[in-house]
Amino acid sequence: MNTAIITLKKQLRKDMTARLEQLSTIELKRQSDEVFQKLQELDCFKKSQNISIYISMPTCEIMTTEIIHHVLTTGKNCFIPRCTKSTMDMVKLASLEDFNSLPMNKWNIPEPRLDEPRENALDENGLDLILVPGVAFDKNKNRIGHGKGYYDRYIKKCNAWADEHGSQRPKTVALALNEQVVNEDIIPVEETDQKIDCILTPKSIIC
What count of Cα atoms within 13 Å lies in the side-chain half-sphere of residue 33? Predict the structure, then answer.
């Protein structure tokens, strides 16, 4: 474990959080709407049937509620995160009503209960597309998350599942605010960090 990299990542998260907290709810909504429009134009989104989507926090990241509504109402399968202290799986949402009735977790994010039986994305057909959150991204498609490594481990797990089952690896698309894209030399990279296939911001598509 590289303590210097860990320290750099902690500082970047702190600096980025301070920057993002300056954004108003109106600005968050405006940027989220623009990213949603770009997402709908991506071929990998149009062609995907099984999609995992993070449920957005109240502040500091692209809002995903409208994306979830869209996926659920257009006949695609929507999978959302369910976490323990050390693991994350993607479990299926049955409907809009199901989504709207989810209980809140300690971060004030809706999340299915751990004791509730739900279809796991890797039980059947796997995932076609993973929409990925993060704290910061760069134009080389590096990403820094919140520090628990959930998405890095999950993407690696999905790729291994796809290889084992002879299917295509899921595409990974990060949804980012303009302010979350930093210069190429700012994000420290470790071996366990997974690059993203594509990053969408209101200003650009980095693929």
Answer: 6
pLDDT band at 107 (very low <50, low <70, confident <90, very high): confident
Q: Residue 143's CB: how many other CB atoms inside 10 A?
A: 25
Looking at residue 51, its amino acid is I
pTM of the model: 0.94
Does the structure show a pLDDT above 60 at 1?
no
- Give the long-range contacts of residues 94-99, CB within 8 A, separation 24 or more: 96/69, 96/72, 99/68, 99/69, 99/72
Residue 154: alpha-carbon gap to chain centroid = 11
pLDDT-above-70 percentage for the chain: 100
178: Cβ contacts below 8 Å, ≥ 6 apart = 31, 201, 202, 203
Structure tokens at 91: 């479990």
Q: What is the Cα–Cα distance from 170 to 164, expressed in whole angstroms? A: 13
3-state SS assignment for residue 134: coil
